[in-house]
Write a structure and sequence with these properties.
The complex is a heterotrimer. Helix content of chain A is 81%, strand content 0%. By secondary structure, chain A is mainly alpha-helical. The two termini of chain A are 24 Å apart. By secondary structure, chain B is α/β, with parallel strands linked by helices. In chain B, 31% of the residues lie in helices and 27% in strands. Chain B is built from eight helices and ten strands. Chain B has helices at 45-52, 74-77, 96-106, 112-120, 136-148, 166-176, 191-197, 220-227; strands at residues 7-16, 19-29, 34-38, 60-65, 68-70, 81-84, 154-158, 183-187, 200-205, 208-213. Chain B has a six-stranded mixed β-sheet, sandwiched between helices. The longest helix of chain B has 13 residues, at 136-148. The chains are: A mainly alpha, B alpha/beta, C mainly alpha. The interface between A and B is medium-sized, with 24 and 29 residues.
Chain lengths: 223, 228, 242
């Protein structure tokens, strides 16, 4: 646990110092909203379409962030330093996933209101509690898969390509569940609470892949 | 002091794909002694150090470090070794102090140790500058601090004095020198200086041991041939 | 020394026989479907291909666990061949499925069929297996990372099917369900024999490729030990284990 905190603290400090990943993710999301606006040629969208746009934008922004997750470890010897220390290897997975979760949460604090302003037809306010619940579960899945895929990709020669091509298909079930859970929320006369079926699927996805990633992560570190 | 040797290697080998990086290396190093590993670039020196540091698993033979077999008991060995390699293993965008504090947390050490070490290597004034703004010699001094932070019994030093001027070299001497009974394995770009420090010298050629001798029993021709 | 290809001949004979029987049943025994006519017979090719391919992916994942547990690269080889073969079967299953969709629903692709859709997603995921391997040069790391991928991807197969199936609210009236649950007897028998034939074909091809690869590696090893390291050309970058 103290190892997780040590790595997390170091990662957040590095991000605050360099300010590389988060601004990139946020700008990427905003540009994507603008692109969707012109792509659809619509001033406002609602319902399933809006949910799809939001989910896809966050998904791609997440992959953008995930790609940076291990770059400092790889290029500045962080892996070796960590592996030399007498610590549980899985602490690295947990710390990186938590860092990724925090990045996503901060991103959404910017991107979701921007989405409400720029694209969403119905007012965002009353839908916010339900949306936060859905996005929190979605972020968990994105953080776990993002970390896992990034840890694989960082050791390959084509790492910028490998992370998205593996990550996207792996994330499709989470994407389906997120979009379907958010769809009714964002409808013009939405109910305000997301459908439990999709919340359950999303939670199942998160739990299953968190456990699997935890079980296999060790093998990605040894040499 | 435990009676097991510090390092015991029996027929250790390691491949990378079809390339053999290390083959049939056997060494017995008592505690408190210094082993110098000599050889040209790519002779297997760094591979050997990485195996001893638990970062690489051997493909053949047996490795025992500080009485513990590797890689099975790597967890027990890690707190007792310090590796100083070619890479400083420091984050460029953090300060020296922050880097060392991070390592102190990984090893669960009190953080005031960091300040004392920074002072010992003459870095107390530049310790709060980002590592990327420091000269290579200063980075190397920080790397030495990182290596000895947890007071390891066994030091694995890959060209430890690279980039250090004589004054800085004297500063780190008490930390990584052989005087206070530490066991050390070191490689050097300067074979004569390394032999002077060593109790045992291992020459590697293409991953295979060319000689293993005490400095007294070593003749200059053998060393020369190694680099020919 | 390994004996190569033991049992391969028996396996080949069994496969050929079963497939002949299956074809005979498909064309002469199974009744013509009332709505779809002759084209419906592609069902006996498409569904077994898809089922065998999915099982092949999961099989590859299980073999990969063997590699992670034992660190024996032979397991990685088995896993690689299993996934490689399953990919080929999978592409076949996708194409025949598309033909069937065109024949029965009038268009080449139908998103409302959850099985076909999830199959496409699984295929997209496993299609990254080879590029992943190819982009890791160190053979040991390649084997380990590929195994980790195979384990995760195998676990992904059932989860993906659940999610996609639930996502389709308007499932086409399904004339035939997987596993032949409500097929008439003669169709069911034909289907099961076809499935067996396809499974045997997969097993034969798997074993055949394993045999070929092992033999090639053995020859290379012998050359190296008899004639020295320079007698063999260095291995280029490859996605295949060696």
């Amino acid at each position: 646990m103290s190892t997780v905190l040590a790595v997390l603290r170091k990662d957040l400090r590095l991000e605050l110092r360099t300010f590389e990943t988060l601004p990139a993710m946020a700008l990427f999301s905003l540009s994507t909203f603008v692109i969707f606006h012109f792509g659809f040629n619509q001033a406002a969208i609602a319902g399933q379409l809006a949910a799809g746009v939001l989910t896809v934008t966050l998904l791609f922004a997440a992959l953008l962030g995930a790609g940076r997750l291990f770059v400092a470890e790889r290029e500045q010897g962080g892996f070796d330093a960590f592996l030399l220390a007498p610590v549980d290897r899985n602490a690295l997975l947990v710390a990186k996933a938590v860092a990724m979760f925090i990045f996503l949460a901060v991103l959404e604090v910017i991107a979701v209101p921007a989405f409400g302003l720029l694209l969403l037809g119905p007012p965002l306010g009353p839908r916010l509690p339900g949306l936060i619940a859905v996005l929190a579960l979605a972020d968990l899945g994105l953080a776990v898969i993002g970390t896992f895929v990034s840890a694989i990709a960082i050791q390959t020669r084509a790492r910028d390509l490998i992370a998205p091509i593996i990550g996207l298909p792996l994330l499709i079930p989470a994407l389906i569940a997120t979009a379907r859970a958010a769809g009714p929320l964002l409808a013009a006369h939405g109910s305000g609470s997301p459908p439990t079926k999709w919340i359950a699927i999303l939670a199942l996805y998160d739990v299953v892949f968190a456990l699997i990633a935890y079980a296999v992560f060790d093998y990605l570190l040894e040499d | 002091m435990p009676d097991t040797p510090a390092i015991e290697l029996r027929g250790v080998g390691r491949r990378f794909g079809e390339r053999t990086a290390l083959k049939e290396v056997s060494v017995l190093l008592p505690r408190g002694a210094t082993l110098a590993v000599l050889g040209r670039n790519g002779a297997g020196k760094s591979t050997l150090l990485r195996i001893l540091a638990t970062l690489l698993r051997p493909h053949g033979g047996e490795v025992e470090v500080l009485g513990e077999p590797l890689p099975r008991r790597a967890f027990a060995v890690r707190p007792k070794i310090g590796l100083l390699g070619h890479e400083p293993l420091l984050y460029r965008d953090l300060t020296g102090r922050e880097n060392l504090q991070y390592h102190a947390r990984l090893y669960r050490l009190p953080e005031d140790k960091v300040d004392r070490l920074l002072e010992a290597v003459g870095m107390e004034l530049r310790g709060d500058d980002a590592v990327r703004s420091l000269s290579r010699g200063m980075v190397q001094r920080l790397a030495v601090c990182r290596t000895v932070l947890h007071e390891p019994e066994l030091l694995l030093l890959d060209e430890p004095r690279a980039n250090l001027d004589p004054a800085a070299s004297d500063l780190v001497e008490p930390l990584i020198g052989g005087s206070n009974g530490r066991t050390r394995v070191l490689t050097s770009h300067d074979p004569e200086a390394a032999i002077k420090e060593a109790d045992l010298v291992l020459g590697l050629r293409d991953g295979q041991p060319a000689f293993l001798a005490q400095p007294g029993g070593l003749d200059a021709r053998q060393v020369k041939e190694l680099y020919a | 020394m390994t004996t190569f290809g033991r049992g391969l001949r028996t396996l080949v004979l069994a496969t050929v026989l079963t497939i002949i029987v299956a074809l005979a049943l498909v064309f002469f025994y199974a009744p013509l479907d009332a709505d779809q006519g002759f084209i419906q017979k592609i069902f006996y090719l498409h569904v077994p291909l898809a089922i065998v391919s999915l099982c092949g992916f999961v099989f590859g994942g299980l073999l990969a666990i063997g590699h992670l547990r034992t660190r024996n690269r032979a397991w990685d080889m088995r896993s690689y061949v299993a996934i490689h073969m399953a990919l080929i079967f999978g592409v076949g299953g996708l194409i025949t499925g598309s033909i069937w969709a065109k024949a029965s629903w009038g268009h080449w692709w139908d998103w409302s069929d959850p099985t076909l859709t999830s199959f496409l997603i699984v295929l997209l995921l496993f299609a990254t297996y080879q590029p992943l391997r190819f982009s890791i040069e160190d053979p040991e790391r390649q084997a380990r990372y590929a195994s980790v991928f195979a384990v995760v991807a195998a676990a992904f197969v059932p989860l993906n099917f659940i999610a996609v199936r639930l996502a389709q609210q308007f499932v086409h009236p399904r004339i035939l369900t997987l596993g032949g649950g409500n097929l008439p007897g003669s169709m069911r028998l034909t289907f099961l024999v076809s499935l067996l034939g396809m499974a045997l074909l997969y097993a034969t091809l798997w074993k055949y490729e394993m045999t070929a690869k092992n033999a090639r590696i053995q020859v290379r090893r012998l050359r190296r030990s008899l004639l020295g390291d320079d007698s063999v050309r260095p291995l280029g970058r490859s996605a295949a284990p060696s």
